[in-house]
Amino acid sequence: MNDSPVYRRTVVKHEVPSRILPEGHRVIRVYLPPGYLETVSYPVVYCQDGEDFFNFGRIATIAQRLILEEDWEPFIVVGVEVDKKLRTSEYQPGEARHDVYTRFFADELLPEVEKLFSVRRSPHDRVLAGDSLGATVCMSLALQYPQLFSRVLSLSGAYYEVAQNQLAEARDLSWLSVWMIVGLQETAFATDRGTFDFVKLNREMRQLLEERNAHVSYSEKDGEHKWGFWQQQLPEALAAFVGPDAFF
To answer: What is the pLDDT of residue 68?
Structure first.
């Protein structure tokens, strides 16, 4: 393996201090592209369930391959870790920690990342990525902070009634671009809140988005509500936003 900085894959961990979160901090892991330079600014993908995106989604490995082998423009990936016991409370609108988490994300995490790493700062150069409830909180962040976020990568979003109601309150979403996929075998997925038809939920969310003039790329493929399915979709999903032929 070539150890030159031009080819090296770099992932660093950092603890973001917080006055908003009760625990006072949140860990992130950051993928820096090969040849990373502080004098160059890069598009950035912010991932909920950050540990899962890196370990199970293998997003750093995928990004490295796309940049080195397929000549993509380099980009940075930020994975925001979550305590699984608090995940629903933080990711689902209306839950106890949701507003606290989204305020932390916008007011503390974003400025910290932009202070430490050479990421671009326009909504068009920030992508919010999430799976299941992670996609839900991505959508909520975009709706609450349209001046910061305008692009969402959604893997089998858990768009329960509360999330759909949140989006239904919006009138014009012509500023928002959403890449969505759901697995056709996700019609009876058991969660801690009951069993849900994720295909139906995502179809309904797509309709709500399109009725409000959001730009949507939507697909359904054979697959289950698992990282084995989502990992396979990441190259196509990333291509929509940061690939050489990106259409968002």
So the answer is: 97
